[in-house]
Amino acid sequence: MDISITLCVLIGMFLVPTKGEVVANFWESPECLKFFYKEKVPELGATFPDVVPLCQCFLNTYHFATLYNTYYRTAVYSAYIFEPSNGGGRETRWFVEPQLVDPSWPGEMIDGYKLSQQIPDIYLGEKQALNEDYANSGFDRGHLNPNGHHAVLSRNATFTLTNVVPQNPTLNQNAWRIHESEMTDLFNTNCHQAYVLVGAIPSSNNWIIKNNVRRVNIPEYIWNAYCCVDQNGRPILSGATTALNTELNVVVERTLKDLVDFLQQYSDAPVGELFSGQCRT
Q1: Shortest CA distance to 37 belongs to which of 93, 84, 80?
Q2: Which range is least confidently modeled, 25-29, 138-142, 157-161, 265-269?
Q3: Are 238 and 227 in contact, with CB atoms under 8 Å apart?
Q4: Cα distance between residue 150 and residue 85, in whole Å
Q5: CA within 20 to 30 Å of 201's CA: 108, 171, 268, 272, which one?
Q6: Is the pTM of the predicted complex or chain greater than 0.90?
Q7: What is the DSSP track for 30-60?
Q8: Rounded CA gap, 53 and 79, in Å?
């Protein structure tokens, strides 16, 4: 049965067993639901097997939401509210989600290396990707929710491995990076607030393989969608993009309707609206 893991619990020593709050879905966590426009959670991915909604918590604060597929070890999407950057560098740590190892463990993301040193006899990667999966793989740790769309501390929180996918380095470092920068300019210029979804479409049979084990699915496409609202919460602008996850290095602009039609080709269940009212202006 699918579970939802709320990743915010009392901060303390990790090895002190602490029961994290486990909820059935995003709707039962108001602090997580706020990252969706008008609290409308997309139907996309809800019926997939092995999906886990994560309310991403760092330093006792919620920062964004992720629907995570524990079979592919990549996210279906991450949902966030854009924030103007206030500076700050890139994290040197890569976080993992303790409750994907054991639901009774604390819910706050933690440095994967630190955790593996604390409990070397327990394998952390049964249901999530690990930093070593990406090492020498030929793929970047491609952020879905980009660190550049946040102020500190949310910027730090994006460095959880449940928020990254194997991304072609040419795409990640060029066309997709430029696109994320253009979105920053768009949101800063036009939006009082911008709600964003960024996701990945899994490939049928393309994986990062370690020790002859299929570890992390390499997505066929990366996509995003946004709903921009004014100071009264009324939608004023929307859009979407897709990018084939190859060295082709091209980002295709789409409408929200176009994106829904595109995603529907890869889903057996109805995709439905990505935002409440499909962010109609």
Answers
A1: 80
A2: 25-29
A3: yes
A4: 5
A5: 108
A6: yes
A7: HHHHTTSGGG----TTTTSTTEEEEEEEETT
A8: 11
